[in-house]
Amino acid sequence: MNATVHAIPEYVEARIQRDLEKGLLRAVEGTLQRINYQRREFTVIADCHVWTFTLDRDAQLWFDDRQAVLRCFHPLDQLRVIFAPGERGNAVRSMYAWEKRYI
């Protein structure tokens, strides 16, 4: 029998923020360049560098402070990506996007 524990998003976000503060995770803010929805991979331009990411199965995706699915994200979106660097690449733990609001 497989037992699965589903954590509420607030708990998962708190754990991600704690790991970020401890230095176990890294964060980068930039512009989404390309996205492959099927392979769950994307590139971001940030800090004059192209970053390549792969989404973890349990990655938290947020768009305008609401949980979202990957299809909500498109090239040129402004992102904040929290990830775990590794030998196999940068594994995304959480990703945030927001729309520009003009007043």
Walk me through the structure.
- With 103 residues, the protein is mainly β.
- It has a single domain, classed as OB fold (Dihydrolipoamide Acetyltransferase, E2P) (Beta Barrel), CATH 2.40.50.320.
- 14% of the residues lie in helices and 49% in strands.
- It has a five-stranded mixed barrel.
- The radius of gyration is 14 Å and the shape is globular.
- The mean pLDDT is 86.
The CATH architecture? Beta Barrel
Calculate the terminal CA-CA distance, rounded to whole Å.
Answer: 54 Å
Helical proportion, percent range: 10-25%
Q: Strand arrangement, largest sheet?
A: 1-2-3-6-5
Largest sheet: 5 strands, mixed, barrel
* Helix count, DSSP H or I runs of 4 or more residues: 1
Short description:
The chain has 103 residues and is mainly β. It has one helix at residues 9-22; strands spanning 26-36, 41-46, 49-63, 66-67, 78-84, 90-98. The chain has one domain (9-98): Copper binding periplasmic protein CusF (OB fold (Dihydrolipoamide Acetyltransferase, E2P), Beta Barrel), CATH 2.40.50.
Keywords:
103 residues; five-stranded mixed beta barrel; 49% strand; globular; OB fold (Dihydrolipoamide Acetyltransferase, E2P); mainly beta; single chain
